Amino acid sequence: MFRIVLKLLVIYAFALPVAKADTDNTVALAKAETLFPQRVDVEYKDESVALFKTGSTIRKKYFLEIYAVAHYLEHAASIDNGISGQQLLDDDGVKQISMKFLRDLKAGQIRKSLLASIRQNTSEKEYAEMSTDVESFLQAIDADVNKGDEFTVCWLPDGSLDAYYQGRQISSINNARFSRSFWKIWFGEHAVVNPDVLLEQLRVRS
Questions:
Q1: Residue 60 forms beta bridges with which residues?
Q2: Cβ(45)–Cβ(57) below 8 Å
Q3: Contact 104, 135 (CB under 8 A)
Q4: For residues 164 and 168, what is the distance between their CA atoms, to the nearest angstrom?
Q5: Helix, strand, coil shares of the chain as percentages rounded to 5?
Q6: What is the distance between the alpha carbons of residues 71 and 56, in angstroms, rounded to a whole number?
Q7: pLDDT of residue 13 exceeding 80
Q8: Distance CA 47, CA 66 (A)
Q9: For 106-121, how does the pLDDT look when each residue is reduced to its tens digit (9 = 90+)?
Q10: Could you give the C-alpha distances from 120 to 9, 14, 76, in angstroms and in order?
């Protein structure tokens, strides 16, 4: 009898955190959904381009909410059967990552985190070929952020990557390899969030 009770307690102990994690994840997704509009418009070659949200989520680390993130895609309206992370990386339309910070962070913390994610998703050879541009991009992140601040990055069809902090452009890197590697932070093999969640709205609609 004692062994049966002990076994049930062990099963319950392992099951309870999972149930809570599922609940927390659902709450987090609902929270992220309310923070971003369904559509944004960006300027590219003197024309306004409409981008549509493909999904949103919250980046967590050690159970702490770091930032909410949403992804936008120019060609979203024409995708009927969903899209994979790899297909997204190959898409030649305008793409945008929008982030809203959910806690105060030092500039050094942001640079360190971004650099680690880029290195995880690139080979040594790839990184060596774009290291100068990586450094230029990171150096532009020179201010601490406050809870509620916004950071936006646009990947343009010409391969360039434009970054904005609080609506002010802080950098523009014209290197398609770097732009692709930067996008892998959220859609690569070692993504910091579940890439499928950032593409969820394309699947729901298909």
A1: 65
A2: no
A3: no
A4: 5
A5: 45, 30, 25
A6: 6
A7: no
A8: 34
A9: 999 999 999 999 999 9
A10: 39, 31, 28
Distance CA 56, CA 40 (A): 14
Tokens in use for 142? Answer: 């020179």
Give CA separation, 87 vs 90, 96, 206, in Å. 5, 15, 16
Are 177 and 126 within 8 A, CB to CB?
Answer: yes
pLDDT at 191 over 80: yes
Name the band, by pLDDT with cuts 50, 70 and 90, for residue 8: very low
- Chain centroid to CA 43: 21
Other C-beta atoms closer than 10 Å to the C-beta of 84 total 12
37-77: pLDDT as tens digits: 999 999 999 999 999 999 999 999 888 999 999 999 998 87
Cα distance between residue 142 and residue 151, in whole Å: 13
- Three-state DSSP state, 87: helix
